[in-house]
Amino acid sequence: MLALADSFALALAPLKRAAVRGSRAAVFHSAGGGRVRLRTLVLIRWIAVVGQALALLFVHYGLEFQLPLTMSLSVVGASVVLNVAVFLLYPSAYRLTDRGATIYLGFDLLQLAVLVFLTGGLSNPFSLLFLVPVTISATILSLRSTVCLGLFALAAVSVLAFYHLPLPWTNGGLTLPGVYIAGTWAALALGMGFVSVYASQVAAEARRMSDALGETQLALAREQQLSALGGLAAAAAHELGTPLSTIALVAKELARDLPADGPAAEDVALLMSEAVRCRDILARLSRKPTGDGPASFAPLPVSALVEAAAAPHRRAGISVEIVAVSAGVQPTLQWSPEIVHGLGNLIQNAVDFARTVVRIAIAWDGANIGITISDDGPGISADVMSALGEPYTTSRPDDGGMGLGIFIAKTLLEHTGASVAFANRPAGGCEVAINWRRALLPSSAASQDTTGKAA
Prior knowledge:
Blueprint: H1 2-21, E1 28-29, E2 36-37, H2 38-62, H3 69-89, E3 95-96, H4 98-118, H5 131-140, H6 143-162, H7 178-257, H8 265-286, E4 299-301, H9 302-310, E5 319-324, E6 332-334, H10 337-353, E7 357-364, E8 368-375, H11 382-387, H12 405-415, E9 418-424, E10 430-437, H13 443-446
Parallel strand pairs: 5-7
Antiparallel strand pairs: 1-3, 2-3, 4-6, 7-8, 8-10, 9-10
Helix pairs in contact: 1-3, 1-4, 2-3, 3-4, 4-5, 4-6, 5-6, 5-7, 6-7, 7-8, 9-10, 10-12
């Protein structure tokens, strides 16, 4: 009974300390904080409790083995009490941390060791159940936790090989030879090692497949969103063509009727120029990409590609600086509408938020090509930054922004093999880092210099 009390106190100690500190996070995390739900291990323990109780009662009354039934059922009752306590303290939706699950399974091992101690040690065929907690750990917990539980189980099996109450055999009893006990110990030790390694490898492979499937589903979802946006863009280009032509016609008539030096002449001229710009944008949206012409396949120096992306977004009052910060021959990138449009969206966003300057730094080495776009604006709030790059995320909803520009730019650039990261600068403003690994780019785009020679 003393061993039973010690084991129960050991299992509840972390829960008690967590309650005193007023934080259950010391042992358990909320849903999503760990790999296994608390309800799963509670259910497994209920199955073990029922099986242990039925086995004890059958052996004692059915086979007439005079077991220390009161003490054995008390050990089983300790698991019942702990299960009920955990059920009352924590919602079943909680997920165990690695540490919490290790303590949970460690109690199961300790409870099983005390029960086997009372019922014959390794001569009890149910000593095989030492494999269960270790196998569960191998499938859901870290390598460190599995090794700790495996060593604990091995230590318990080693002690039980020498110290245990005898199994009360009928008709004079049966004494098993030491070599049989040693063989049982070796079988358990090797079984725990083999099953743990096998289960951990299978579980790791299953997790890798699950992660790959999740990434694929996410990529497909983003592709579907981008395709839907492409359809919306084509529809917008078609629907807006007529009213835009009307606006341009009315603006021309107003310009003809108003005096050239009148106060409204400048506003009408601005309206006409913006109408022309809108017409050009709609023309680009509705134009079918044919891939014809030298620009479709010509590799360009990175600075030329950046300049082509930045040119439509330069405006008075904001300086756009393009700087090559690496020494040596400048690499080239294949001309790509995705790169030009993606960079253009990011540069336009930086120009919109900048106070005086947007700096575009181009860097390269033997393995990477990087472009960093930074501005001296107010930066981005933390809540928006955490979701930046997702559709319909914007920091300026009052200005009519739909939150699609960054999403489209990021998705297009990632299609070309780039990684895109956003951050706030310590000195103020926002910074976008775009990086291509040369090994993933076409050789003609990543290894030629500005003169066409191999770099």
